[in-house]
Each structure stands twice: as structure tokens, then as C-alpha cells.
């Protein structure tokens, strides 16, 4: 009698964050795995900051092929990894970790690439003047990719000026983009001749009535306004910007693009973007 061989051990990947229950990436990734017939599983993991090192060690022990990092671990995880890609090293932030054939964990960042692909559907950032709100993990990834894509000038705005200064210095030292830093305070006015405004903070996430404290009278139909927040899809910032004639980009496309890039890095398969976007829209109640 022939012996049936069944593989009950899928390749494991997942996401480490605090507030993991609200992260829809698991549904998007699993949809891609099913569509492409991949014997992989994606797991959301609630990891408090003080146990991040233990969690990474556990992922090593359990043979994880990689994992994502979300709020608040994108910068803190660096110390627990073996290597960084150039973009991750430059930004100092990691949202995607890959395990090599030698077992080493290498950190990279697909946030910036995901944002850039979504942005290019509307505007080419080359030669533009950009305002980036925030200086955390997502902001660092977005700012670095915008600079590498040829943005002429960048203003980094953050409530903690020292963090904005640090990111602006990184941009100046590593790219040809002119970068400065300002404190993000109530009523901040977008400088004249700005082309793109990016909210790369978590302000507005799950809070549809909350908005970054900028002076909306300085937003016009000359601007493209993007928000990395994916829930709600139309944030207060995007709603108010659209009312003033600005083109807007929500966080949905960025989330799918960065997830698709992670699938490519982990599995070597170029996933079907439409399948992933459709699943995300479904779980977000948009279908």
C-alpha cells in the first residue's frame, strides 16, 4: 500500500506589533498565499515593547521565514537583527525581516517602496518640494524613498524637533535633497511652493475625527496630500484637503504595495496585486 505524504508544516511569517488585533495585513497575505498555492501561513502577534527581543528570538527558534514589524517596533527591532539592507540602514527603520539560507535575519523596509508606488500613480516625486509630517519609522522610510526618488527639497515636521533634525540630517548626508526640520505645532502652515504633503504619523488611525495640527488654509488645489493611515480610508486630513481641491492618496494602496513586496522577498513569487487589494477592501468593508 502506498503511503500518503501530507505536509502539515507550513512556512511561517507574521507581524509583530502592539495593537495587533487591528492589523488587516494577515487577511491580505493569506489571500495571496491561497491564490498562488503557497503552503505558507501569516500570523498576527501581539508583542509588547519590553518583550520584542524575546519575540525575535522565538521567531528564530520556530523557523520563521520572516516577519513584519509595525507600531511601535520599526526602529527598536534593528538591535535584534543580524543585517540591514541599505535602505533600512539609511532610514534606521525596519518593517520587514527576511531569514536567509544561513539563518540570519536581515531587516529591510517596504513601507517607503509601497508609498512611492502609490504616489507615482498620481505624481512623480522627482523635482518636487515635499513636507513630511512625522519622524518615526514610517516617516523615515517614506522620507528616504522620496529623497532617493529625486525630491528637490524636503521639510520634516515633528512634535519632537530633535527627531525631525535627525531625519533631515540623514536625508542631507545621504542624498542630494535639501532637507530641513521644523517643530510640528498647532496651526503649522505648509510652506509656499510645496507640491506634496505626507502625513506619515499615526494621527487619525482608528480615530476619524482626529487630524494633524496643520493650517488647512495653506492647502490648495496645487497640492497632492497623502496619508499613510489606512483606517479610516478617508481620514479627516484627506477629507479636508479634498474639500480645498487637493488631490489625495489614502493609505490603502501603500498597505497593499508594501505587503506585496514582502511576499516577493519571502517567497520569490510576484503576487497578484488585485487579489490582495480586493481582499483588503473586503475586510475593510469597502466591497
| Ends distance | 49 Å
Mean pLDDT: 95
Structural class: alpha/beta
Q: What form results from the Cα inertia axes? A: globular
Which sequence of strands runs across the widest sheet?
A: 2-1-3-5-6-4
Helix content: 25-40%
Radius of gyration: 19 Å
Sheet of most strands: 6 strands, mixed
Number of strands: 12
Secondary-structure element order, as H and E?
EHEHEEHEEHEHEHEEEHEHH
Name the poorly predicted regions.
Answer: none
What is the overall number of helices? Answer: 9
% residues in beta strands: 15-25%
Summarize the structure.
The protein has helices at 25-35, 52-61, 86-91, 111-120, 137-148, 161-174, 236-243, 251-267, 273-283; strands spanning 11-17, 40-46, 66-69, 83-84, 96-99, 105-108, 129-133, 153-158, 178-183, 196-199, 224-227, 247-249.
Can you describe what's shown?
- By secondary structure, the chain is an alpha/beta fold.
- It is built from 9 helices and 12 strands.
- It has a 6-stranded mixed β-sheet with strand order 2-1-3-5-6-4, with helices on both faces. A 6-stranded parallel β-sheet has the order 9-8-7-10-11-12, with helices on both faces.
- The chain is globular.
Q: Can you give keywords for this protein?
A:
287 residues; alpha/beta; six-stranded mixed sheet; six-stranded parallel sheet; 9 helices
Give the helices and strands, then pairings.
Elements: E1 11-17, H1 25-35, E2 40-46, H2 52-61, E3 66-69, E4 83-84, H3 86-91, E5 96-99, E6 105-108, H4 111-120, E7 129-133, H5 137-148, E8 153-158, H6 161-174, E9 178-183, E10 196-199, E11 224-227, H7 236-243, E12 247-249, H8 251-267, H9 273-283
Parallel strand pairs: 1-2, 1-3, 4-6, 7-8, 7-10, 8-9, 10-11, 11-12
Antiparallel strand pairs: 3-5, 5-6
Helix pairs in contact: 1-8, 1-9, 4-5, 4-8, 8-9
